[in-house]
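Kindly inspect this today.
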Amino acid sequence: MDNLYFRHVLLVEDEGLTRTAMKSLILSSQPTLDIDEANGFDNAVERLRSKAYDLIFLDFHLGPDHTGMDLLHWLQENEMALHVVMLSAQDDRETVLDCIKNGAGGFISKASEGGGAVFREAIETILGGRVYLPNSVLGKGGHTPQAPAPAKGIPIDSLNLPPRLAQTLRFVLQGLSNKAIARKMDISENTAKEYISDLLSRFNVSRRTFLIVEMARRGIEISPTQGAVA
C-alpha cells in the first residue's frame, strides 16, 4: 500500500501488550511508517512537544488520571493540525460523535466482532487518506442517505467548492476549532464560522460533527497534514 498522507505516527495506548499488537497491525499495512509510542497523557504531550506528527492513534482510556478526550482538548488548545483516530471498546453513537465533536477525525471500535480484520480495514481506510467511523454512526445525522463510500478515496477538489471553502473543509477534517481555522487561514473567527455554515448548508447537515460523518460516508480524502512542530 502506497501511503501518501501520513509518515510520522504516534500511538497512544496505556496497555503495553495492546500497544505492541496495534503497532504490528499498523506496520503490516504500511511498513515504512515512522511510529512512536506513548503510554499515557504526559508521555504523549512530551512526544508532541518534541516532534512533528501527522497521525495519532489515541486510546479513549489512558489510565486513572487522564482520558483520550483530555489529549484531544490539549491538541485543540495548542492548535495542532493533525489527524487523530480514537480507539475504544466504548463505541456507542453518542461517544463516537462526542469524540468527533472534540477534534477526532476517526474512530475505531475495539469491540467489533471482526477483530483484527476490521482493524486492518480501518487502518487501510485511514492510511488511504479517508475518515474511518463505525457503521453504527455512518448514515446518521439528519442528512440524506447515500451509497457506501467507494473503495478508492475521492479528493476534496472533486466537490467543486470555492478554494476558501475547500481549505476550510480540510481543516475541519483535521479537527481544528473555529479559532484555530481562523488563525491558519488569516481570517476572523466570524468569517471562519461563516465558511463552516456555508459548508453545512451545501451538504445539508446541521453540525460540523455530521459534516465529518458525511465526508466519511462519501469517501472524501483529507489532505496531507503539516506536522505540529516546526
